[in-house]
Amino acid sequence: MKNIKRLFVVLIALSLLSVTFAVLADGTFTFATAKDATNTDALRGDDHASGMMHYLMYDQLVEFNPQTFEPAPELASAWSWSEDGMTLTMTLVEGVTFHNGEDLTASDVVFSFERMLDPDNASPQRGNYAWLTSIEALDDYTVQFKLDYPFVAALEFISLVMIVPEQAILEMGQEAFELHPIGSGPFKFVEWIKGERYVLERNDDYWMKTPLLERVVMRPIPELSVQALELETGGIDMVYEMAPTDYLRLQNSDDVVTMGVDGFSYTHFSFNLSRSPMSDIRFRQAVVYALDLDGATNALFPGNTASRAYGQLPKQSWANADEYLQGTVALPQDLDKAKALRAELIEDGVITEDQVFTIWTPTDAVRTSLGTILATAMQQVGFQVEVKPTEWGTYIPVLLRQGNPDGEWDIMILSYTGLFDPDYTLYKVWHSSHAFPGTNSNLQMYVNDDVDALLDQARRSGDQVVRKALYQEAQDIVLSNYSVVPVYIAKVMQATTTRVKDFILNPRSFIGLCNQWTNVYLDD
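^ thats the sequence. predicted structure below, dont judge the formating
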């Protein structure tokens, strides 16, 4: 009897080993994006496609639970605050190594923050850290942050900084590092052939756990319908962004698993306040009056796959003020008012009868269609308009005003993904400290002293009730200026083939393949 039991245990052990071996030996996970990445190093920016690969190659000090939105230790195993809330001390996990075998220490953490804060590096992330006075390595595994004032959202911003190897970058140089990036994350860089594929491989020495996927491949496929077809035929394992029609259709597929959750990303159109007539509120109001925003949202998103946005914060946010803003700043479609404002602008010499305005959009079908809807609405009240869908690698420099401080664009359509604390969205997008060429947030160059004061007060308060009131007042002011017009907040709609196991949907759309909450594998 004992021999039978021993045999049973051995057979179980062998079967588990064989399953593990099969998973580890054959695990190339391929997913599609509508846009290619723009960089390999977060120092250069955090557009969504690049950010997803950063998230897999690098580690952060702190991560946020994708389901509870609570902070969780990552490279920082523990932290504590001083009584005045202006000093944060973090203890690092010992024994973590970078992909090149070097130990990750407090010196690397300090270097990662300081290079991002260095004005000479012109990082678009730099403006996020005005609250940070200094960061110091107290010993090899302890770092200390000094804040200019108590800042309740500090951990969220700290979680955005990817930790990189100081010695390797100093030896290689920044240019070489971007060609061969080195992190400490679950996957290592292999190659990036722009427009074709971005490839990572398993980090067998990952400190947290051994990734079950052998390789990760990101393929840029601009057409969402083509992505869906590739998913159905097994050409890819996942799509992280879907057209609503494909999402609804694939819910009936036996070969695909669809997932949906209210997202953190709102889509809007913005006006370039550095140029006339976009700097004239009458022009902006005329455009808004011309458009049926409810009709546009319903046309673009059948089956309740998106909701009309009145503010800039997601439904899940404790500071969401959509109900209030719907009654204060939202303008209903009124073609007569739009035509009257246009006539007034012509009479005052602000615009000419035949002046042509350009709406810039990304190339994906949904936002290109929104551009067409907006252009048609403007045309029906007399404006001359063209829509300019632009590939992401070209779009980003235009938005950042590279080579032209006034910007080349008139109106642009974009989506913005926030964090769990509203400061990340509202301060970045509206505070005047972010209104400079090269910024990746206050793209419209909005400046208002009253809004600055409200946002400064909100980020210094630890009282959520007080902060919500301040954010509501700030949104009331900025959205009644109509330099940014929220349109919709779409569900995060993703799908995988049935062979993908243990995938967790993140409402911020990032793809976590090996972290403290999951370890994705493929089961054929």
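The longest helix spans residues 2-25.
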